[in-house]
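Suppose a classmate hands you a notebook page containing two proteins, each written out with its sequence and a corresponding row of structure tokens. How would you begin to make sense of it? This section walks through that situation. The first entry is reproduced here exactly as it would appear on such a page.
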Amino acid sequence: MKLVIVESPTKAKTIGAFLGKEYKVESSYGHVRDLPKSKLGIDVEDNFLPSYIVPVKAKKLVTALKKEAAKAETVILATDEDREGEAIAWHLSEALKLEDLQVQSTPTGKPPKLKNVERIVFHEITKHAIEEALTHPRKIDLNMVDAQQARRVLDRLVGYKLSPFLWKKVAAGLSAGRVQSVTLRLIVDRENEIRAFKPEEYWTIMGRFEDANNAEKNFEANLVKIGGKALDKFAIKTSADAEKISETLRALPWSITSVKDTESKKSPHPPFTTSTLQQEGAKRLHYSSKKTMLLAQRLYEEGLITYMRTDSVNLSTESTTAAKSWLSANLGERYASEAPRSFKVKSKLAQEAHEAIRPTDPTRTPDQTTGREEAERKVYALIWKRFMASQMPQAIVATRTIEAEGTNGKDIYTFRATGQRIVFDGFLKYWEQKLEEKELPDVHEGDAAKLTEVKPSQHFTEPPPRYSEATLVKTLEENGIGRPSTYAPTISVIQTRNYVIKDAGRFKPTDIGELVSKVLTEHFPAIVDIGFTAQMEDELDDIARGIVSWQSVMQEFYEPFAKLLAEKYAEVSKEEVVPEKTNEICDKCGKPMVVKMSRFGKFLGCSGFPECKNLKKLSVEAGGKPGPKPIGMKCPKCTEGEIVERHVTRGRARGKLFWGCARYPKCDYASWEDPRGESAPKPEKVEEKDTEE
């Protein structure tokens, strides 16, 4: 019997269906070893030696897997092909003592031999891919294991060393993390930009024209030039300027001076990578990165899509051939590219041996997944359409540009109108883009024109928008902060810890989030520096390539970090960090009340603490939390009460946002997901990848 071990029960079930009776497929349910939660678990004096343990919840499973491994002729470690999967395979090997297992000596008296232990990887869970992987086993890649181990140790050092500093100097229960703290800083910095922003006024002028001989030939155009000089955004600054120009325009004779017709081609986007899937999942489906990845993981483990943690846009020849065949048969030859389209990834760090995210079977259309949960079907449809669109011809767009000019003998005033229409939709049939069609009339150069309306419009510059899920992921990727597999858990953790909330679908820092970011930026600038974080990711990649040792990278980071941390413990006082005082007097002991901070926000506490432990809620005007907030929606359960936003007031989830019926306890409707959006997916018992301390 050959024992195959994977990390997910769903994956085990799918692979088990492909293999014969000679194989037994078991799941490890993620990592079977980890650093202890109760202590640092890293010997910084002994070359950063980690002390791994088998968690209590995994001990029974490890014992069972040991028994199965002892009976097996061959143990095959078939965990995912990334660093995390490689580390899980290594931990399994260590926990099960696979290298120590020996096959019993034969009756002929031959000496025992080491048990055959193999490592296989594959990009998709299909019968062909699994069988192919079994014919090409390899050893565990210890360089990849070291890279994952370095990330784990690094995040543990930052989390377990820096978080206690925040507890002592700011508030209990806070946490810091190498990637989460930089992500938080991005959101806080954007909020500060918004506050500091000062709007500037500017004006534009629209004109409505019609052919002098045919009123049905009319169009709208914008004033773009005066005296042959192009108008910049702030060329018309005031209402008086706009009205003065408008009066001049109304008195001028006009003619069509230019009509240009051009055709342009629009190319499809590459198939999805982890990052772009999360971005489009947020933009098109309004799903969080975490939700999109959980759904994609289910689709992968059940054999519907290829591996969903990838930064490559490569596609196999088999997949592009299958796509062309399906497109030709179902849409016609015109909708199938003559040759397979390939793409180049922008990131120099992309693992080109991998494939992009695509359907394992391009002929399985979204309509053929009707038996699945709706959210899964939507993610599958997104992946299928993006892949199919990538193999379809360019769209052809016809553009017409019309210019009308008028002159008073001194200056020439120029209006311009641009319209477009789709000549051939091509890939747009499956991948819709914002392409507003606007038809312009058939006019000719030299035709006389009438200006029938002049409409000046006032505008103000707007501050940069808060980050949405999609724009935050894009910014993290562009700056090399973390890796695609870390985005979802990072964004999730800063919400769970109440550092940021979502307001109208965009991230807004809370009071405690801003304070934590301020403290870290002032006292530990390197930890929250974008350049430093990106450099650290580069070094982790160098470890994976075998260029540097992971211990040397840890040493280079830890020595200055530990020195600075010791200095800050001595320099920084809690009073300097949270110095707010009030005029309110404690009604229990008569001492002044002061504003204090917890991970859930501000509150009033007696300055006589710990002798007096009187606490009070802070008013909304003074920065306290508002009460339940209606969202303008009736309860879907009782249909009478209003749905309101609430926060959990006790337990481990304290401070977390949820939605419930205002008639509680008469109606017990409650949801972790905004009921105006999609319901949350059921969690799988699979360890989330690359989480921070």
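The notebook's second entry, a different protein, reads as follows.
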Amino acid sequence: MRTRCLLALVAGIALSLAFPPTHVYVLLPVAVATFFVVTDGLPIRTAWLPGLVFGGAFQITLLWWLHVVGTVPWLGLSLTQTVWYGVLGAAAVPLRRLRWSPAWLAAAWVAMEAIRCTWPAGGMPWGRLSYAVIGTPVAGSLPFVGATGLSLVLALTGALLAAAYTARGRAQRLLPLAGVAGVLALASVPVLVPYSAHETGQVDVAAVQGDVPGNGTDVLAHFRQITAQHRDETARLAAAVAAGRAARPDFVVWPENSTAVDPFNDQQMRGDIEAALHSVGVPILAGVVVDDGPKHVLNQGIVFDPVTGAGDRYTKWHPVPFGEYIPWRWLFGDHLTQLNQVSRDMVRGTRVEPLEVAGTKVADAICFDVAYDDGLYAQLSRGGQLVVVQTSNAMFIHTDQIEQQFAISRLRAIEAHRYVVVAAINGVTGVIAPDGSVVASVPSRSEEYVDSRVGLYDAVTPAVRIGSWSGRVCVGLVVLGWLLAWGQYRRTRRARRADPAGARPATRSDRTVPGPTDRIHA
């Protein structure tokens, strides 16, 4: 068991290296295969242990950037996510008894991802296998199968590699290896035949990055200056338009926390927004914190019009647990001083319609919303023509989180076949094309803006149409697999009782030649 756990530790760390910024994506199928190998040949009562070690090494390393919020949130979230890999290790045991077990195991991996992305306390999607594929040949399959479907492809690749390793003979290894080649070849077909859709219009969009004073991490300490810097940068954009150096935008995007106090209750904040509107003369989609009583707050993207004022608004779907709200506050809130710093809980939004901004239907995502499927899928399936990501991430500006989230934004552009405009408070702000390429961006920690003409699309990709159903189907398949395995077990027990000598299956000690599964000692 020590050897298994050591290999699980190494494989978990290797999987974290498959994600940006290291992005050694070739490690991904190898790490997944190692997970299935080290949990093979164990009973349910012990198979969870190497799975738990794998998950801990992966999540604690991948989410290291969260330590800037505090050790408790970092370890609390990481360890919560870790548990699911232990559950997967145990849940895979009965599925290995079925024919075509690699397919069942791949479904189990995706089912685990689907559950941990939503539960408990809203879950955390960071570390989905598909989030490591940007810039790879298989990324082109995203519009067809979506992030969940691509995770299934990658998990199946790893499970087939594990099956090849554990096969007892050279001939038996050929079939799973051929399966690996076939799966990867099929997933790479869109390189030759990419998804395409008809462009229905174009708009000029500008995204403003106002930066954060000091070391760039403390928004609340400089909230008035941050809003003033976004106001001033918008005025510089307006001056460039007036001088003919830039095209007049149809609308401007400000990032999350560009106004960190309620402008409806704070005259100075409201004045800064009105000044920016007056200078540029077009609507601004601003990231605004809005009061919602003494115990709650809203994180919103609000459309401010230079004539009619505040209008359409989107509320963040997925506030960060232990960062923007305290789940089970009755249990934790009065005992952990660090958590008491979150004095008001952020209320999650439920809007499913895209925003109307200057005649354009905009699917909005605020910060971590971009990593979740539900909010974007809902808006895109209801007519969203363009995706906007409003994000702060200022406290993470010196960590890997910045590159990881921008990579997810690029993935969403491919999956939805939409332009994605990212407005970040101090990086990375940019415009992403439907093929995932970066059209324009500005350096982190700078006061600048990007402006670009972007295409609009009405066609809904198969990935968005499928939505969350691929994950739900995988959960259903795992339940079905358990039932089938239980049926096999009961039939074997009945046969064993009827013929104790003849029905007894061969055990490891019956083998005349050790199999490859014996290479890892229990």
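A careful reader of the second entry would note: The chain has a mean pLDDT of 93.
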